[in-house]
Write a structure and sequence with these properties.
The chain is mainly alpha-helical. It has two domains: 58 residues; 29 residues, no CATH class. The longest helix is centred in the middle third of the chain and has 58 residues. The termini are far apart.
Length: 114
């Protein structure tokens, strides 16, 4: 009886394992990196929107305080006069941007400098 030499073990399972690991790592990083960038962009946008909301709330409160300080100021009469000219308040601001009243901080009513 002759003895046959033992076959060398196959490297196929190791290559399949390494290939699968490389594929899974590629999937992980191609999905995770853009998601973290989008998350950072959304957090920056949220911070910007929060800042704008705070500024607009402050501008509204400043406008209310100025109106309350002037008892003869009638906001309803102003709105009626704007309507009589055929504008909405937004259309009036767009039609005459240079005629905006300067606020207490030297900027426009929105609080931003021109």
């Amino acid at each position: 009886m002759s003895r046959e030499p033992a076959e060398a073990p196959s490297n196929f399972p190791h290559w399949v394992t390494l290939g699968s690991l490389a594929f899974v790592l590629w999937l992980f990083f191609t999905n995770t990196v853009p998601a973290t960038q989008e998350r950072a962009a959304l957090q920056n946008l949220d911070a910007e929107l929060t800042g704008l909301r705070i500024r607009y709330d402050q501008a509204i409160e400043d406008a209310r305080l100025r109106i309350a300080a002037e008892p003869d100021y009638d906001l309803q009469a102003l709105l009626l006069a704007i309507d009589a000219q055929g504008f909405t308040p937004a259309e009036l601001c767009l039609a005459f941007p240079e005629a905006r009243v300067l606020g207490p901080r030297g900027g426009t009513e929105s609080g931003t400098p021109r």
